[in-house]
UniProtKB/TrEMBL annotation:
It is an enzyme of class 2 (transferase). Residues 425-506 form the PEP-utilising enzyme mobile domain. It comes from Thermosipho ferrireducens. Residues 59-291, 300-355 form the Pyruvate phosphate dikinase AMP/ATP-binding domain. Residues 526-873 form the PEP-utilising enzyme C-terminal domain. SUPFAM superfamilies: Glutathione synthetase ATP-binding domain-like, Phosphoenolpyruvate/pyruvate domain, Phosphohistidine domain. Belongs to the PEP-utilizing enzyme family. PANTHER family: PHOSPHOENOLPYRUVATE DIKINASE-RELATED (PTHR22931), PYRUVATE, PHOSPHATE DIKINASE 1, CHLOROPLASTIC (PTHR22931:SF9). One of its GO terms (molecular function) is pyruvate, phosphate dikinase activity. Keywords: ATP-binding, Kinase, Magnesium, Metal-binding, Nucleotide-binding, Pyruvate, Transferase. This is Pyruvate, phosphate dikinase. It catalyses: pyruvate + phosphate + ATP = phosphoenolpyruvate + AMP + diphosphate + H(+). Its cofactor is Mg(2+). Gene3D superfamilies: 1.20.80.30, ATP-grasp fold, A domain (3.30.1490.20), ATP-grasp fold, B domain (3.30.470.20), Phosphoenolpyruvate-binding domains (3.20.20.60), Phosphohistidine domain (3.50.30.10), Pyruvate Phosphate Dikinase, domain 2 (1.10.189.10).
Length: 875
């Protein structure tokens, strides 16, 4: 087995495709060498050695030493230098590098090979004693720190002391003798820690190799892999690159820098980077001296500048992606020390992917795969001004429930929030948790903050639907509605105080922060998404209850409404009394009278929706929540409401009591309501069908309403309600003497419905998986209570994902798959969609595509994300 790969002078044993084996850095050093780009010669010890090292109690494969010795000999021969030779010493860097870039997480040692003798040799050869001793003291420092674990700070202290003694501020003001004395100080530090600095260069080399392999398991690196979701065993380990040193600190004709082939912030096609004259690599990163913009290099050495620009272009064409490059200039000669695909902002990721297609470097599929769904989401939401963010304090952290940044004055009451907004104030609505009655205030507010609730709590779902930033479940916050303040970690925030919330991170800040407008669906994002549309198979619809949301979704590319929740329309101020009268009605006649008043209002709602959607399919779900949600539950409100609807407080109380359920989510809701009160289904059907008829007659808009019956578990439930719907609809259509098609279908959200989907499809003309309820009932997890235990489940690794956020493939997903198959086996043109929160989640969309669904439906602001994710699912 081969463990070591050599590269020098235009020829390398490795290549870019060998990333896994040689790490990103090693593979690209090899590739650049083969491309004829100037790279200092060296060799790479493979990642397999790292794996061996940890599998065998930190020992190496038998033949490794021999291979390293051979590579070292070759290196000595191509450089004409010798490791440890006082007259002509070979100096190397020993650098880590895994297959996935983990910038700065592992160790690198520079200037290895220096000792008391070779430092003198280097001084003579370069005729620069100061340089030689500077290199030596840097090596002592890095070696002591990384290979022997002596705290970095001790060396810094000694350096500071030397500068102080001499009365200077900058490192460069120390001369050769000062640095030589500093070397002795450093050696004392070694002694103080009971360590010895190995004068033998060969021993140094192996100690450095040990250190780099050791750094694979250091805390920082482990943490980095955790945060970035790199699983144990996914990578073999780190490689070790041994590279001949080139010196950017040999004088004014030398320097070092970092550059990107395009602007990593904006994506603009123009070289971007920084450069530092007379410096060694770490100086740039360590921020000790301030580097100058790359263009300055042109003044300093135009031919090197042009050479670098040529290489940047060559590398970008070769790798077909934006490159992040490290370079060093030694006495006017340019060397490349690293190249990799550069990290970039979301905005830049999109622009670069689109530009590369226009430049014929990549195809549309590749561009679509290069952009992460989060990138789309990020560019569509407002962000805080980065500079201001540095000066404000995070006072609490909650769940990042609905992305975007918002700033405003705190109000605790939804009605007041509406009022203040109308007066032109910016408002953040702060609630212990929200209920349907807060919707008006939520809509008016810039953003929403709640102390309780999870990712699918009312506040979270509604906020996402509205595209409003929201932070929910910020448990440390104590909301005191009476005192009109909230308290958190020793801070008291009063009504009218400014706060800012970031629904992308979950951070809550004290004070006002300027928000920066999103760029919207134009330019590169729009173009990229149009390619996604060409590629994807899944349709993308939206969940929208009102024309404004529907309009937003259409502008974002929605191809229809997959879920209109009719009950949301009932919560409006002027309607809720009518709804309540309907609920407290004692007789069918009374109820019908109340419904009669609601009918024209609902009809107008639907006309608005149909008009906005201009003939695209619109799925409308009949009433779903338990009726008690429409009634007040505290004493004070009871009085008000009783008065409003003209009954006594006692009567109202007794209705509320009657409606009380121990387990409302499994109680009297969904189709169970319309089975008890068919007149509600009649009214809603009338509203839907007559809206469609009127639009067709008056405005010539063709609508195909899809009426959806929720919470069906048994085919007979569907049969019963469907009959009511069909009789009502057909008689209206007949009276209108018009041709109108409509469909009746059902939600599949109860496990029994998924299992008996073949039967249900006999009645249902379409399915829509309600994966929120389906997840709740399949796991038996109450959506509203998961906050109590789910975080621990995730922490302890019992579940990998929050199943309410990202579909549980093995369980709930199987029901979706089975339900789809069984449904389509009965009715092969059955349209099947999904309308839970999962409809906008990329990982879930991957599954829905494979399961053969026809479309996903998600909140308006997730429509662009879903378009991209659906395309990625097919590639
Ligand atoms: P990281 O992975 O943390 O970027 P590197 O291995 O790239 O670590 O090393 C950090 C810096 O050290 C490089 O950017 C470069 O400037 C400098 N460096 C590494 N090897 C050499 C070398 N052979 N000659 C000169 N400078 C080097
Ligand atoms: Mg680097
Ligand atoms: Mg449901």
């Amino acid at each position: 087995k081969k463990w070591v790969y050599f590269f020098a002078n235009g020829q390398a044993e490795g290549k870019a495709e060998m990333k896994e084996l040689l790490g990103g850095k090693g593979a690209n050093l090899a590739e650049m060498t083969n491309l004829g780009i100037p790279v200092p010669p060296g060799f790479t010890i493979s990642t397999e050695v790292c794996k061996y090292y940890y599998d065998h109690e930190k020992t190496y494969p038998e033949t490794l030493k021999q291979e390293v010795d051979e590579a070292l000999k070759k290196l000595e021969s191509v450089t004409g230098k010798k490791l440890g030779d006082p007259n002509n010493p070979l100096l190397v860097s020993v650098r880590s590098g895994a297959a996935v870039s983990m910038p700065g997480m592992m160790d690198t040692i520079l200037n290895l090979g220096l000792n008391d003798e070779t430092v003198e040799g280097l001084a003579k050869l370069t005729n620069n004693k100061r340089f030689a001793y500077d290199a030596y003291r840097r090596f002592l420092q890095m070696f002591g720190d990384t290979a022997l674990g002596i705290p970095h700070a001790e060396f810094e202290k000694a350096l500071e002391a030397r500068k102080e003694a001499k009365g200077v501020k900058l490192d460069v003001e120390l001369d050769a003798d000062d640095l030589k004395a500093l070397v002795e100080d450093y050696k004392e530090i070694y002694k103080k820690h009971g360590k010895e600095f190995p004068q033998d260069a060969y021993k140094q080399l192996w100690a450095a190799i040990d250190a780099v392999f050791g750094s694979w398991m250091n805390e920082r690196a482990i943490k980095y892999r955790q945060i970035n979701n790199i699983k144990e065993g996914e990578l073999l380990g780190t490689a070790v690159n041994i590279v001949t040193m080139v010196f950017g600190n040999m004088g004014e004709d030398s320097g070092t820098g970092v550059c990107f082939t395009r602007d990593p912030n904006t994506g603009e096609k123009k070289p971007y980077g920084e450069f530092l004259q007379n410096a060694q690599g770490e100086d740039v990163v360590a921020g000790i001296r301030t580097p100058v913009p790359l263009e300055e290099l042109k003044k300093f050495n135009e031919s090197v500048y042009n050479e670098l620009l040529n290489i940047m272009e060559k590398l970008e064409k070769h790798y077909k992606d934006m490159q992040d490059i490290e370079f060093t200039i030694e006495k006017g000669k340019l060397y490349l020390l690293q190249t990799r695909n550069g990290k970039r902002t979301s905005q830049a990721a999109i622009k670069i992917a689109v530009d590369l297609v226009h430049e014929n470097l990549i195809d549309k599929e590749t561009a679509v795969m290069r952009v992460r769904p989060e990138d789309i989401e990020k560019v569509l939401h407002a962000k805080f001004d980065e500079n201001e963010l540095k000066n404000v304090k995070v006072i609490a952290k909650g769940l990042p429930a609905s992305p975007g940044a918002a700033t405003g004055k705190v109000y605790f009451d939804a009605a007041k929030a509406e009022e203040k907004t109308a007066e032109g104030e910016k408002v953040i609505l702060v609630r212990p948790e929200t209920s349907p009655e807060d919707v008006g205030g939520m809509n008016a507010a810039e953003g929403i903050l709640t102390a309780r609730g999870g990712m699918t709590s009312h506040a979270a779902v509604v906020a996402r639907g509205m595209g409003k930033p929201a932070v929910v479940g910020a448990e440390e916050i104590v909301v005191d509605e009476n005192a009109l303040e909230f308290r958190v970690n020793g801070v008291t925030v009063k009504e009218g105080d400014w706060i800012s919330i970031d629904g992308t991170t979950g951070n809550v800040y004290l004070g006002k922060i300027t928000t920066v407008k999103p760029q919207g669906l134009e330019g590169p994002v729009a173009e990229l998404l149009s390619w996604a549309d060409e590629i994807r198979r899944l349709g993308v619809r939206t969940n929208a209850d009102i024309p404004r949301d529907a309009k937003v979704a259409r502008d974002f590319g929605a191809e229809g409404i997959g879920l209109c929740r009719t009950e949301h329309m009932f919560f409006e101020k002027d309607r809720i009394p009518k709804v309540r009268r309907m609920i407290v009605a004692k007789t069918k006649e009374q109820r019908e009278a109340a419904l009669e008043e609601l009918l024209p209002l609902q009809k107008e709602d639907f006309k608005g929706l149909f008009r906005t959607m201009k003939g695209l399919p619109v799925t409308i779900r009949l009433i779903d929540p338990p009726l008690h949600e429409f009634l007040p539950n505290d004493e004070e409100q009871m009085k008000e409401v009783a008065e409003q609807i003209g009954i006594s407080v006692d009567e109202l109380k007794s209705v509320v009591e009657q409606l009380h359920e121990l387990n409302p989510m499994l109680g009297h809701r969904g189709c169970r309501l319309t089975i008890t009160y068919p007149e509600i289904a009649v009214m809603q059907t009338k509203a839907i069908i007559s809206a469609a008829i009127e639009l067709k007659k008056e405005e010539g808009i063709d609508v195909i309403p899809e009426i959806m019956i929720p919470l069906v578990g048994h085919i007979n439930e569907l049969k019963y309600v469907k009959k009511v719907v069909v009789e009502t609809a057909d008689s209206l259509i007949k009276d209108a003497n018009i041709d109108l098609t409509y469909k009746v279908g059902t939600m599949i959200e109860i496990p029994r419905a998924a299992i008996t989907a073949d039967q249900i499809a006999q009645e249902a003309e379409f399915f829509s998986f309600g994966t929120n309820d389906l997840t709740q009932m399949t796991f038996g997890f109450s959506r509203d209570d998961v906050g109590k235990f789910l975080p621990e489940y995730l922490e302890k690794g019992i579940l990998e994902h929050d199943p309410f956020k990202s579909l549980d493939w093995e369980g709930v997903g199987q029901l979706v798959k089975l339900g789809t198959e069984r449904g389509k086996s009965t009715r092969n043109d059955l349209k099947v969609g999904v309308c839970g929160e999962h409809g906008g989640d990329p990982r879930s969309i991957l599954f829905f595509d494979a399961a053969g669904l026809d479309y996903v439906s998600c909140s308006p602001y997730r429509v662009p994300v879903a378009r991209l994710a659906a395309a990625q699912a097919t590639i």
